Every structure is written in structure tokens, then in C-alpha cells.
Amino acid sequence: MKLLAIVTTLGLLVASPVMAQSDQALSGHEVELLKSEGGVDLCFLPVETVYGAQVHIIDESYVNVSRSVELASPKTISVTVEDTGEPIVLFVRFMASARTERIWKFDIEADANVVGVHFLSRFSKILPRMEGLPEGMPITFQYHVNGESNDCVFQPAMDPALAAYGPDQIAPNSFSGIPFIALGFGKLEEDLKRYAAMSMEAYQRTEGGWFDSSVTINSHTAQDFIDLKAREQLLLDQAQPPELPFLPETAETLTVPEGLARGEVWPWIIAHGYAMKAPPELIGYRCDIDQFIAFSMGLEVPKTAYCRWTIDGTPNGESRFLLLLGSVEMSTETCESSAYSSSKIFGRDGIVIESENFNCRSGIMDINKKTWY
């Protein structure tokens, strides 16, 4: 099937409630996107175009500036691409704003072999302004904004030698955005290999301020990505949970009496020494584990971005999470009426909540667990 590069004008579309409230509209602009013969956007660059290429992911960082600065001029992001000795695919995940325009300035050195650019957005349905991309550069774009995605299709591999690759080898939404949990990021890396034998060479966030935000693609950033993963995997392997006052394995299972009112069950268990509010050192340790997992996959981002046990970056173990110190048993009715508000109870292997209803007694997180799943 022949691919057509069709000039598409992307107008203003609402990407968020903030954009809907703005009086200043973003002007539309023309950009060439790869489309199928039927005129539908391609979800990702064709297999033949990107087979065996290195994937470098660029994630636009949020830059906090005053409203006057934001309104005064566009935000500019400079992308320098140097030769890495291999073909390069750029994944670009960009932010959006109703008040100002983004300008992505690409400086691709003559010997850098950029074979395509894929833009992703969970904030805007329109592409940012781009400068410096060579004429005819293959470009694809996917967005997923407020539950709405653009219509697009994957292009099957036409070369018989590449029949083992292509869209049949990936999950339907693999390239619709960059996952921000380690499990999803690992799946993306695997799907890149299955789609076109591509390797995820580096993940970078843009650095700098509003007027000088930038990122550089080269062999050094690729090595930094490898070194980060190796270093953080070692830290993950070596991490040990804090000493906690678990009851001995010989301790009897505590039976919760019937008739306790909602909100009385866990205080009763705590009063009998079989549970406690999760201490801050445990919450801090679990945040470290989340960070090690994310970093071991090359996702060097602020620590709080990957901690599931905090609110606005502040540990809340004292009020939100429980630590089960020994096994307890209770009826299904008592268990179902005593759902703890945190929705998460920590424990360790061998400590359980016994009940006739399996769903009620599940959900204890082993503190020794070092995966996201």
C-alpha cells in the first residue's frame, strides 16, 4: 500500500478545561503527517522506515513561570541531534498551553541519520510549531486527551523479509503515549523490538528554563541511559526493608469478633497488637523502591513522580496505610464492612487476612516485593 504525505491543517481543539476557559486561541498551522492510502493518519512510522533504528524518547518537562512571562512569548525547546552511528527515531512527548505557543527547534547535524519523528500528547490535539526538520521527514502523531484519541491505523510491513514484524506484534495502544509506570515502560521497550527490531536507546526530559529549554541526542546520552539502568538495578537488588515489629511466625491468628461497627474493626486489631499505622520509614522505603524500579528502566525523573505512597510529595503513611503485624481472621461480613480507607495494607509473606471471601482477604502488599505488579 502506497503511503501519501498529505498536508493537513490542524486547527484549534480543546485539550483541557484550562484551554476551554482561555480567550487566546492557538493559531493552526500546516504540517505533513504520514497517512494511509485511505487518508487515515498512521499511528506510527512504517516498519520499513524504522526497522532496526534507535529510539530516543524526549519528554518535555514542565517549566513553572509567571503568567506575564508565559503570555509574553512562546516557549522554545531546542533539540540537537548528533550522529550515533545508527538510524534514529525521535519520540517527542510534548505539553500544551492555551495561553502560549510551543516552538520545537530541531538542529539535526548533517551526519545524523534521523529516519522519522513520532509525536505523542496527552494534553493537546494539535501539534506544536516545528522548525528545522528536513523537508519530507516522515512524521506521525498520536494524542489521547480527556479520553479521546485521534483516528489512526498501523501500516503493515510490505517487505516479505519483514513479515515477522509490524502491527500484529504489538499491543493496540503501545504507541499512543509514553507510559509513566515502569511496567508500561517496559512493555513499550519490548513492543519496539517486536514492531521493527528497534531498541530504546535513551529517555530524556528537556532541561532549562522557559527561554532555553533543550535536549541533546548523541552516543553519550545513550551511554548515560545504560549506566543509569545498571546503577539503579544494583540499588534495587541491594535494598532491604526497615526492621519492623512483626509478630513471630508462631503467633496465633487473631479472631475478630462479630458485631463491631464500621470503623471499629481496625482500631480493635491495632489495640490487640496485630496492626499499626504504617511508619514513615516504611513509606520512605517503598518510595525508594518505586524510584529504583523506574530508574532501572531508564526513567530519570523526580522521585515523587514514581511514588504511589505520597500525596503531593509528602509521605502519608501515618494516616493512609496500615501495617499488618500478624495474621487475623474475620467473617466475610466483618471484612467487607471494615475496608480500610487507604485501600492498601502492608505485610510480609505468611501474614494474611483469613475470610471466606477471597476478594476480601486479598490486597496485602508484601514489603519485600520489588516489582510494580
Question: What does this protein structure show overall?
Answer:
The strands form 7 sheets. The chain has a 6-stranded mixed beta sheet. Strands 9-7-5-14 form a 4-stranded parallel beta sheet. It is elongated, with a radius of gyration of 25 Å. Mean pLDDT is 81; it is low at 1-29 and 312-318. Helix 5 runs antiparallel to helix 7 (280-295). It has helices at residues 17-21, 47-50, 67-72, 182-196, 219-238, 265-271, 280-295, 317-320, 332-337, 358-361; strands spanning 4-10, 29-35, 41-42, 54-59, 75-81, 88-93, 102-108, 114-121, 129-131, 139-145, 148-149, 152-153, 199-205, 213-217, 254-255, 275-277, 310-311, 314-315, 322-324, 328-329, 345-347, 353-354, 364-366. The protein starts with a strand and ends in a 7-residue tail after the last strand. Helix content is 23%, strand content 26%. The longest helix is centred in the middle third of the chain and has 20 residues, at 219-238. The chain contains 10 helices and 23 strands. With 373 residues, it is of the alpha/beta class.
